[in-house]
Amino acid sequence: MKLQEIIDYCCSKHKAYIDYPFGEIPICFKLSGKLFAQIYPNEDDYKITLKCEPMTADFYRQVYPGIVVRGYHCPPVQQPFWNTIYIDKIANDELLNMIDHAYDCVLNSFSKKKQQEIMDSN
User: Fold this and answer.
1) What is the dihedral of CA 62, 66, 71, 76, to 10 degrees?
2) Which of 33, 51, 72, 81 could form a disulfide with 102 if both were Cys (CB 3.0 to 4.6 A apart)?
3) Cα–Cα distance for residue pair 115/109, rounded to 1 Å
4) pTM
């Protein structure tokens, strides 16, 4: 999947936006201040790190060994909640499902009231 396609897809999520809290790389995607995706667009190391529920994250790692790994940049306590995916080695539809899951994880981490505010806003 091409970089611009991933950027467009992440930005299509309701109220998602791009941020650069760590410099030009990674390209980060947030919802109401919380990260759900980080793209590393280097041609020789093209990957994305996505928020994930621990059981789902472990499932993806087992199904796609070596393609989906624990969030490589995360401290050990955060690794169960993040997966790094080597983009060129996974089907596009599966990657989109993982991005959807990452967005939903962050949305669901907010209180019901905050979730409603996010979804009701334009």
Assistant:
1) 70
2) 51
3) 9
4) 0.93
